[in-house]
């Protein structure tokens, strides 16, 4: 892939570097008409270009390129749509059209335009409309254009004689810039409470997200000096409550012109300090952008919080008129797509309106059987975000969240409001949020005193809830749509990554890395070898690498979850219970209790308090089911008191199905590879025997990735009375079918030779055995001989060359000559008349035997050939057998740059020179 990023004004030359087709012509001769003509008047402020070769991995590279480009431009709102569309269009180019894909991203005043160009204009894109089949998502082609039509503001198709371009434009949502508002004058008792000394941390973040300025109040609030944090990314300190696929992350927030909201900052002690922040994007005189962040303690947010819009001029001067329509200020305050901000402000206003100590808001899941905690204030359960409770709950005056309810004293009705268990709240009023008669959520306000609320407060809260219900539901649906688009992009990339490897360990690592931290804080993968085996802890990952060993130690002391094949996530309470006991033991030790007492509480399990906190939240288990068998479990966890949201669990379930199949494929591949290698090794001869008076060296190379044995083979074995048999052969073809004939030939040669048969008799019987194989028989060229060393230092050979490349004899004077005559190959004729020839190797002589993979080595029209082999052999005078074989193989490899396409075998035998005493 080649790419270039060129920010700046509208370029003088509209054609980008690298040959990207920026100039366009009207379509002609292809029948495709753009949906909308390209706008020529937009001012281009930045561009990014890249080219991708026609291979499958280019699709993932293109997605990453678009994501990084738009992230750098600060357009996080449209990244998911752009990635999905780019993935489809680049796939069409590099996979279906089989050409290079040129990708161009343009930032202009109207939004972002992305062009994908391939070099196969003859392959037309389907037209829009019923006749083209674009209405069917199941058809093989045209789905990329369907997505363009569904997601893009504008799109089109353009042709030239050499290129075809599909483009789409995404509009960037408007963001409020420089908004101002004012609140009414209020009596002193209605003013928000703040500490006597309000500290406002002023932190400046440079263009790459690093801290460049840190004032004294920031040092007082968080404990770090300016020298300790300057130059570090703010993300190292920020505890961002970000759900993947929705809302805004810290990096995006720092790129916005203005942002306001809550998050946390980790202090020097590791504690998270809740803060309320106001971000303003500025630039210095040199034009370099930076972000100024004002931070206060979260309970002092009134110092920075922008007053909410919606107050009329009449209400601005009267607190009485303000209470008449208490929830008018809820609607329109946060950005339309900022559901978290809307919910948080809702609970704060509800608490203030009823003078409560806490408030909470729950949203219904899609099936409306459960409610999820989405926002709260004044409760320790703020950490229990996304905890779920059933809609039909409690035994109080109203047992359903579908009806308003007032509880005077929760101590007499334990469990009536599960969210408030153990919080100290005694009285509570809850009302439903409904849209068109459908339950969408529940809003509640609670107080520490009993009997604080009556039906009058319930009516006021219900009136306010009715005002906010539609805005909440609209924002929730928008968030859900963004989450689904993000999920689609996430699953596309996950599938590509999992499909890219067949290694079991790498698959396990990818599973964990895709879930942490995107879906969970930590994860563990259990695998099951077979149905009779227990689950085994195979991989553990935490977003903080220092906690991995502790979590692994803790989980190793807990019985693994049961391998239940039922789909969906189920809660696994064991890690949380162990974490709770560990926290209790730590507390007892800090109080000075005996170690014996604490060990009884801990039941012998002792993870550190940090580890216990890391796994103390909700833990869920998803089965890994492949081919109707549970092959493992994917365990996802959250820190103390945190819960998963339902949409994340559904995304994790989709991922687990893909991961299970990838893991099972890796297992099958490993097993079959092991079997294949074992069978192939059985076809190779054992270690070569040591022959007194003769040096022997063999080099063997099988063609094809993962093959150890092919159609070429060799053997050297003792016969009797100091005689040795040797053979080198070539079965027609390569791969497993040829290897089967290889095994037959090698084992038959040994059996027949040890029966005392002559060389011709051995080959004639082998020929009959090959023909008996019928349709599975293969042609076979074979050089077979018997070697017998003599006392005078020479060696006698009897050889039969049945259709094989002739053996070459190298004499001490450097001459090279064939050592046998050619005879018919095996596996063709039933009646063969073969004869053997006798050769004597004098001291210093070399006999070289090769297969045709050596002599037929090609580079374009050139071939090494018999003459080329003989020329190389003439340079081997005086070399040992090992050196001769190595020089021949080196010459073959250097003859051509491509990988060998045929099997190769080299057998070199040399009689050493006699040494004078």
Automatic annotation (TrEMBL):
Is Hydrolase among the key words of this record?
Answer: yes
Q: Its GO biological process terms?
A: regulation of DNA-templated transcription
Compositional bias (Low complexity) spans?
Answer: 312-323
Region Disordered, as annotated, extends over 1-40, 310-333
User: Start and end of every PAS domain?
Assistant: 202-232
**Which UniProt keyword terms apply here?**
Hydrolase
Q: Which GO terms describe its molecular function?
A: phosphatase activity
The record's section on Pfam families has:
GAF_2, GAF_3, HATPase_c_2, PAS, SpoIIE
Its name, as the record gives it, is PAS domain S-box-containing protein
Q: Write the lineage as a comma-separated list.
A: Bacteria, Bacillati, Actinomycetota, Actinomycetes, Kitasatosporales
């Amino acid at each position: 892939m080649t790419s270039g990023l060129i920010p700046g004004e509208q370029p003088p030359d509209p054609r980008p570097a690298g040959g990207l087709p920026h100039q366009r012509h009207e379509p002609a001769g292809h029948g495709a008409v753009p949906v909308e003509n390209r706008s020529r008047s937009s001012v281009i402020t930045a561009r990014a270009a890249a080219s991708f070769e026609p291979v499958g991995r280019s699709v993932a590279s293109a997605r990453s390129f678009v994501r990084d480009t738009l992230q750098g431009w600060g357009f996080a709102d449209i990244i998911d749509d752009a990635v999905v569309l780019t993935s489809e269009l680049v796939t069409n180019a590099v996979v279906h059209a089989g050409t290079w894909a040129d990708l161009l991203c343009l930032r202009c005043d109207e939004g972002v335009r992305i062009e994908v160009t391939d070099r196969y204009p003859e392959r037309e894109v389907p037209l829009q409309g019923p006749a083209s089949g674009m209405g069917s998502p199941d058809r093989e082609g045209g789905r990329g254009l369907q997505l363009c039509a569904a997601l893009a503001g504008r799109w089109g198709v353009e042709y030239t004689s050499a290129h075809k371009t599909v483009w789409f434009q995404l509009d960037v949502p408007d963001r409020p810039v420089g908004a101002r508002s004012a609140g009414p004058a209020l009596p002193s008792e209605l003013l928000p409470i703040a500490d006597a000394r309000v500290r406002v941390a002023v932190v400046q973040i440079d263009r790459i997200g690093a801290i460049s300025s840190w004032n004294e109040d920031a040092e007082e609030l968080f404990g770090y000096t300016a020298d300790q944090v300057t130059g570090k990314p703010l993300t190292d300190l920020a505890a961002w409550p970000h759900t993947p696929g929705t809302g805004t992350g810290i990096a995006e927030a720092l790129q916005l012109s203005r942002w306001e909201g809550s998050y946390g900052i980790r202090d020097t002690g590791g504690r998270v300090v809740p803060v309320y922040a106001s971000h303003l994007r500025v630039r210095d005189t040199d034009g370099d952008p930076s972000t100024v962040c004002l931070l206060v303690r979260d309970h002092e947010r009134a110092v920075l919080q922008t007053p909410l819009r919606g107050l009329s001029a009449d209400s601005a001067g009267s607190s009485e008129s303000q209470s008449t329509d208490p929830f008018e200020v809820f609607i329109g305050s946060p950005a339309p797509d900022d559901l978290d901000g809307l919910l948080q402000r809702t609970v704060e206003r509800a608490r203030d309106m009823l003078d409560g100590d806490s408030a909470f808001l729950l949203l219904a899941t899609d099936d409306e059987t459960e409610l999820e905690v989405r926002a709260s204030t004044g409760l320790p359960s703020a950490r229990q975000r996304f905890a779920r409770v059933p809609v039909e709950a409690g035994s109080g005056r109203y047992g359903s969240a579908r009806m308003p309810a007032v509880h005077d004293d929760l101590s007499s009705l334990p469990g009536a409001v599960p969210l408030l268990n153990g919080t100290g709240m005694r009285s509570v009023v809850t009302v439903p949020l409904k849209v068109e008669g459908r339950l969408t959520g529940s809003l509640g306000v609670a107080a520490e005193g009993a009997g604080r609320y009556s039906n009058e407060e319930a009516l006021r809260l219900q009136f306010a809830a009715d005002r906010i219900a539609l805005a909440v539901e609209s924002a929730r649906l928008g968030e859900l749509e963004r989450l689904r688009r993000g999920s689609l992009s996430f699953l596309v990339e996950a599938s590509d990554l999992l499909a890219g490897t067949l290694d079991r360990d790498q698959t396990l690592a990818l599973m964990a890395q895709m879930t942490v931290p995107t879906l969970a804080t930590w994860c563990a993968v259990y695998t099951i070898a077979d149905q009779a085996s227990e689950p085994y802890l195979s991989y553990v990952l935490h977003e903080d690498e220092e906690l991995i060993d502790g979590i692994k130690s803790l989980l190793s002391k807990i019985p693994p979850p049961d391998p239940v094949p039922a789909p969906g996530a189920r809660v696994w309470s064991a890690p949380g219970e162990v974490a709770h006991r560990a926290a209790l033991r730590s507390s007892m030790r800090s109080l000075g209790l005996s170690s014996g007492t604490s060990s009884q509480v801990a039941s012998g399990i002792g993870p550190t308090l940090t580890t216990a906190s890391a796994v103390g939240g909700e833990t869920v288990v998803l089965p890994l089911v492949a081919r109707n068998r549970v092959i493992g479990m994917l365990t996802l966890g959250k820190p103390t008191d945190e819960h998963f949201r339902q949409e994340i669990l559904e995304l994790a379930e989709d991922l687990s199905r893909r991961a299970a199949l990838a893991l099972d494929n890796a297992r099958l591949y490993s097993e079959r590879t092991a079997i294949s290698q074992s069978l192939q090794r059985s076809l190779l001869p054992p270690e070569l025997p040591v022959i007194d008076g003769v040096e022997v060296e063999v080099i063997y190379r099988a063609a094809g990735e993962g093959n150890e044995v092919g159609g070429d083979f060799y053997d050297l074995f003792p016969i009797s009375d100091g005689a040795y048999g040797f053979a080198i052969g070539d079965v027609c073809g390569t791969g497993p079918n040829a290897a089967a004939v290889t095994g037959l030939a090698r084992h038959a040669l040994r059996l027949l030779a040890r029966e005392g048969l002559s060389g011709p008799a051995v080959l004639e019987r082998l020929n009959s055995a090959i023909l008996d194989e019928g349709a599975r028989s293969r042609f076979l060229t074979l050089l077979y001989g018997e070697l017998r060393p003599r006392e005078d230092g020479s060696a006698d050979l009897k050889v039969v060359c049945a259709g094989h490349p002739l053996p070459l004899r190298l004499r001490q004077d450097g001459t090279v000559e064939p050592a046998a005559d050619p005879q018919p190959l095996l596996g063709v004729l039933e009646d063969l008349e073969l004869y053997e020839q006798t050769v004597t190797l004098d001291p210093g002589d070399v006999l070289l035997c090769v297969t045709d993979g050596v002599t037929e080595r090609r580079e374009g029209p050139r071939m090494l050939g018999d003459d080329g082999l003989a020329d190389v052999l003439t340079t081997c005078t005086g070399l040992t057998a090992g050196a001769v074989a190595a020089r021949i193989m080196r010459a073959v490899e250097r003859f051509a740059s491509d990988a060998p396409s045929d099997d190769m075998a080299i057998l070199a035998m040399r009689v050493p020179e006699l040494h004078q005493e």
